[in-house]
Amino acid sequence: MTAIDRAAYPRFKRVVPAREPAEAFTPTVAEVAWAREKTQSDQHLPALVVWLKSYQRLRHFPKLDEVPTAVVEHVRGLLDLFGEVTAEHDADRTAKWHRGLVRSFMGVKYDSGKARAIAEEAIRRAVTTRDNPADLINVALEELMRARRELPGFSTLDRMVAAIRTETNTALYTMVAARIDLAAKARLTRLLWLDPTSGRSDFDRLKTPAKAATLGKLKLRLAHLQALQELTAPFTRIPAIPLIQLN
Predict the structure, then answer these.
(1) What's the predicted TM-score (pTM) here?
(2) Is residue 247 predicted with pLDDT exceeding 50?
(3) CA distances from 151 to 59, 65, 70, 117 (A)
């Protein structure tokens, strides 16, 4: 599971700046009139307005309990509702109805399948040059924003990235393994054997850092470099391996 903090998925901040509710979540007169016309209870009115302003800000519908208290209180105050009036849908069908109202008001045609297809295409284009899951999620978000699509849930994008990375990397590993002959595979396997005397493997020795820049140490590094070149020589004949940024 990719940490949502590492991606650019739009969401509410843990601490809402004091000026943000007024700047970003103040409904217009027309929006308030529309919401009053579409609702019949005090609880549904702030719920609909909160979702409308949240959707305008985030391009998706957060759970009402994820909306900061400061935002809900700001909207409730502008609607002239008492403090004990909560913003709630009280039923799944009401929440579904409100989502449809907001999309219609915003002129958004909801198509979850199309949104997922756009995200998948963007991820597949990027996965051959990027490997970090958060980076791939951000690529999908950028493309969805450009297409003015409602954002899928973060977990949906995360699962999509995980599946595409697994598929792509497995195909890459399979391709590389098929192009390495038995002798080269044996040499790679020997890298992991532990020397019973030193307790070190050749792979461990390959990672030995350079010492001080003296003449003797430079000669040792040249010998080390030559050993690396001899080790990698069989793999220079493997063409068309995509360059992936492992960041």
Answers:
(1) 0.75
(2) no
(3) 6, 19, 24, 12
- Two tokens, residue 219: 């000669």
Token code pair at residue 136: 């791939």
Tokens 């960041």 -> residue? 247
Please tell me the predicted confidence (pLDDT) of residue 241: 56
Q: What is the rounded distance in angstroms from the CA atom of residue 189 to the CA atom of residue 191?
A: 5
Average pLDDT, the chain: 88
The first and second tokens of residue 35, run together, are 């919401």
CA atoms of 34 and 54, how far apart (whole Å): 16
Q: How far apart are CA 110 and CA 88, in angstroms?
A: 23
C-beta of residue 209 within 8 angstroms of C-beta of residue 150: no
93, 43 Cβ separation under 8 angstroms: no
47-66 per-residue burial string, b: 16 or more CB within 10 A, e: under 16? bbbbbbbbbebebbbbebee
